[in-house]
Design a protein that fits this description.
By secondary structure, the protein is α+β, with helices and mostly antiparallel strands. It is built from 5 helices and 10 strands. The strands form 3 sheets. Strands 3-4-5-6 form a 4-stranded mixed β-sheet, with helices on one face.
Length: about 230
C-alpha cells in the first residue's frame, strides 16, 4: 500500500530506567523484554532475545555487545538467547559480566572498558551540543560508519536548514563547528521521515506546516525513490 514504506512511529517504552555512566546520570526509556527467574531474589531477572532463524545458535559479537549495553543500563545480571532450527528451540544463558569474553574457539569478544569509554565520550559530546532547553535532537549514524551526526531539529519548523554537528568514535572533543544540514542522498530520507512524524504528532498549525514543508524540501530530489513519503508529506 501507499503507507507500507513509511516507518512506524516508535511504540511507547515499557519502562523507564535511571542509568549512570561515569559522571552522567540520565533517564532512559526501555523496551527490552525481561523475564523473571521465578525465585524470591529481587535481582533474578534476565533479558531475552530470539536469534534470526537459520543462523548460528551462538550470538554474534554485535548481539553480545547490544545485550551487554542494555543489561548494564537496566542493571540485569543475565542474558538469554533463543534460536529455532528445524522446529527445535535452543536456549543459551549468559551472565552479563561474561558477555565481553568469548570461548577459545570463537572470536566474538569486545573490550568492555573501551565500550564504556566511548559511551562517556558520546555523552560528553551530547552534553556540549544539546544545550537548548526543551529541544528536540536526532542522533544519526549510517550503517558501518564510525561517525555519528547530531541534528538539532528544534528549529526545523522555522529555519531553512537544520543545525548539525559531527562526532567520531576517536574524537576527544565534540566538533565545535556546527553546520547546516545538506540534503545528501543518505541522510535526506531519514531526516524527512523524522520531520513527517514530528508534524503528524502536532495539531494543525504553522509548526506542522513548516515541518511538512521541510520534509518536502528534503525529499524533492528523491521523490521518485521515496514516492510514499513524498505523497504523505505533500
Amino acid at each position: 500500500s501507499l503507507y507500507s514504506e513509511i516507518p512506524p512511529r516508535p511504540s511507547r517504552f515499557g519502562r523507564a530506567v535511571e542509568w549512570r555512566c561515569g559522571p552522567y546520570k540520565m533517564l532512559l526509556g526501555c523496551d527490552l523484554v525481561v523475564l523473571h527467574g521465578g525465585s524470591s531474589e529481587g535481582s533474578d531477572f534476565a533479558s531475552f532475545k530470539m536469534l534470526p532463524p537459520g543462523e548460528s545458535a551462538e550470538p554474534s559479537r554485535e548481539d553480545r555487545m547490544d545485550m551487554y549495553l542494555e543489561n548494564m543500563m537496566c542493571d540485569i545480571t543475565k542474558a538469554v538467547w533463543g534460536s529455532d532450527e528445524k522446529g527445535q528451540t535452543t536456549w543459551r544463558v549468559f551472565n552479563t559480566a561474561d558477555l565481553p569474553a568469548s570461548a577459545p574457539d570463537q572470536d566474538v569478544s569486545f573490550d568492555a572498558n573501551m565500550l564504556k569509554d566511548q559511551g562517556q565520550r558520546l555523552l560528553h559530546f551530547l552534553r556540549q551540543q544539546c544545550h537548548r532547553e526543551g529541544g528536540t535532537y536526532w542522533l544519526f549514524r549510517e550503517a558501518n560508519s564510525s561517525c555519528a551526526e547530531l541534528f538539532d531539529v528544534t528549529a526545523a519548523s522555522s529555519d531553512a536548514s537544520v543545525a548539525a554537528a559531527a562526532w567520531g568514535a576517536g574524537d576527544d572533543d565534540a566538533d565545535k563547528t556546527s553546520r547546516a544540514f545538506g540534503a545528501s542522498d543518505s541522510l535526506a530520507a531519514p531526516l524527512a521521515t523524522l520531520c513527517y512524524h514530528l508534524a503528524k504528532s502536532m495539531q494543525d498549525g504553522d509548526d506542522q506546516r513548516q515541518l511538512l514543508h521541510k520534509a518536502l524540501h528534503l525529499l524533492e530530489p528523491l521523490k521518485e525513490d521515496q514516492p510514499a513519503l513524498f505523497a504523505m508529506s505533500s
